[in-house]
Design brief:
Blueprint: H1 13-40, H2 46-70, H3 82-118, H4 123-148
Helix pairs in contact: 1-2, 2-3, 3-4
Length: about 150
């Protein structure tokens, strides 16, 4: 592929990586503080563990974005070799699934926190939150399957 003079050979990858690693560090600190506070009152719940899983998945996504950036994944394709394009797309394919899973666990964690706040006396509110958690998880699974088997990729 020959580079076009009309297209700038800009690499937005380093900026994206810098932002994501900063967010990952902040997320890790906040999650650690959450566990510290909940541990002090001996009330660590499954919402906390889901948020820890979400943080781990976010850090995994950030690592995948870093790997994708290393081969020019955030540059115009006309400036990349065919091998770099294939490798960046493979990483992107994996990244999509992990990213959707991170969204699902984050949303489930918020739902679990709401369940904790609502308590056991409000059965209809708990039922609504459970329906939302299950539907969100189901939609995220279907989204992952849809992306994985999309014939137009």
């Amino acid at each position: 592929m020959t580079p076009s003079t009309a297209t700038e050979n800009a690499d937005r990858g380093p900026a994206i990586v810098g932002i994501l690693w900063t967010e990952a560090a902040i997320s890790l600190i906040i999650t650690a503080l959450r566990f510290y506070a909940r541990g002090m009152i001996r009330k660590v719940g499954w919402d906390d563990w889901l948020m820890a899983l979400t943080t781990a998945l976010f850090i995994t996504c950030t690592g995948l974005v870093t790997a994708q950036t290393s081969v020019g994944g955030y540059r115009h394709e006309e400036f990349l070799s065919t091998n770099d394009i294939v490798y960046a797309l493979k990483i992107n394919f994996i990244l999509r699934g992990v990213d959707i899973l991170a969204y699902a666990t984050g949303k489930a964690s918020i739902g679990a926190l709401i369940l904790r706040i609502v308590g056991h006396q409000n059965k209809w509110q708990r039922a609504v939150v459970w329906v939302v958690i299950v539907l969100t998880a189901l939609l995220n699974v279907l989204n992952t399957i849809s992306i994985s088997f999309n014939a137009n990729q």
